[in-house]
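Annex B, item 7. Sequence and structure tokens for protein A, then protein B.
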Amino acid sequence: MSSLGCSRHGPSPSGSSKEWHILLVKTRDQSYPNHLSNTAHNLSVGIPALAKNESGQRRATYERAYQVAQRDAPLRCAPFSLAVYSEKMMRITLLRHGKPAFELKGIVQTKDLGAIAKAYNLSGIAGAPPRKTAAAIQGEKWIVCSHLARSIESAKALGFSEVHVKDPLFCETAIPHFGSGSVPLPVGVWIVVLRVLWLFGFSKNGESLISARKRARQAAERLVELAEEHQNILLVGHGFINHFIAKELKKSGWLGPSKPGKVFWEYGVYELNRRHSGLGNCLPDPTGGSDQPPVNGQ
């Protein structure tokens, strides 16, 4: 079987963000007529009918595409079938929130770590995003945030007036800490020590590493579901959970950096091009199987 293809790139006239492709599939051992390339080109005018009715009356949309194609370039020379599929590029951007207004500084005792973690999670952000980041992120996106203020405020600072999803599923991995004790250390040192202990299984008053990775898998699955529906997703998330989500996306075949970014406002873009052929099988030859050559050059 051989084929001659044509495609319509970019959004379809119905507003779909998919790319619709039409293939003329040769079903018998015959030569292509000279005008077939024009026919393939003109078949693209049938795309709106297909796009509008993707999940509805499938055969009717095929027949409509044939009617339009035959009107512009009749298929009377050989039995061909029309195969239709769609391709859509899905994109998920994982961005770390802006710098929190609550500053992690000073000498603190072990017993104070819980209160510091709570104050940090209640904090919004200080300052604006870099202009380069704000410009690169702009465009039509489905905005996803955690339920924490620093995530939501960062999305607003980027210029997005509406946050479509606010879900604790995307919040940062809760750092473990001791509930008592008077050992004094700089708060920055405490964070490093506790995160290292966390990597080795310590999870008191926090979230275990196993639990965090499981939640990251669930978060990645949720983002993929959103991308299937809305194509372009921006998660304004957090450092560790974004890192784990990125790993899950790459395991599933998404293309992007191994790490989405460690510093505030840094981001990584992950893409997947998925082909859908759910519109049905090839339609039988509309010419009724005629082997007659075109009449008067048509």
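Protein B:
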Amino acid sequence: MKIANIRQLVLKNAKRLNISTKNLEIQRFENAYSNLVYKISSGKKNVVLKVFNDSLVDENKIAEKELALLQKFKGISPKVLFVDTLLGKPAIFEEFVAGSQLTGRRLSNEDVYQIAELLAKIHSAKIDVKIKNLLKRDYVKVPGENLENIIAWLKKVDNKNVFAPRIIKIYERIKNHYAANLKPKRAICHGDFKLLNIVKTHKGLKIFDWELALIGDPAWEVAVFFYFAEHKFDKTFFSKQQLNTLLKTYLKLRPDTELKNRMHLYYCFMPLQNLLWNVREYFAFNVLNEREIVSGAKEKLRKKIEKELAKLEVSLR
């Protein structure tokens, strides 16, 4: 997607955006994973444009899901301005949320409380008919939660069996070992709840990127978040005491006597979950920019995945 295409779409919608066409600046957010996200600026006016550009999924369905969830969680998410298309791709214009990132620094006790509150608010939301229908294909019924969906996706995209046979074998071993002890509960889950998707504002925390949302076990989402925090992924820094406080606060706001037990069982899936994120990135290289492909990043990633696979296979012997 060229900047010229983005500029053309912005100019077409300048009146609706109430934005001046003079001194128009377009900046891409590089940490956006598979879709394209841009900050559009002119003077003091800022808006955000998200173009759904992931050829590995049904972009229209993903955009429809994200739009519905942004509207449902409008108090804790960016406000939707309007929807358009760009070169056949769905695009959402959103308000620009000014604030500070929570990554790369020590968190305050207030930050910890607000994160717990945000997570509890999402998991406590009512699953209405519209959301249930939109998330029907993402309704997870098996232990391992959304891993089952990812494994099904892997079987389709990995038609040359680069990784699929070994990963499926690992998944089946873990699932069969722990499945009998899992009794999942159901709630709306963000699907990618991490500090990189959260901004701190003067009105509280705002969360972005609902494209991976699903109906699943809240314990899975909490377990993933804690796993990332404990391993300091995405420059996330929590003390052990803060993580304990976060969990206590979450359970006070949203009581669940079995959540800790389910979290423990889900932890067994975490190394595989992390591996599958890298695998998804490997197969998404056809939508990444040329510079990354030329630099040999795809081959480096393949070697990294092979190394992680071998380590997992050894641990399960």
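Comment on protein B: The longest strand covers residues 36-42.
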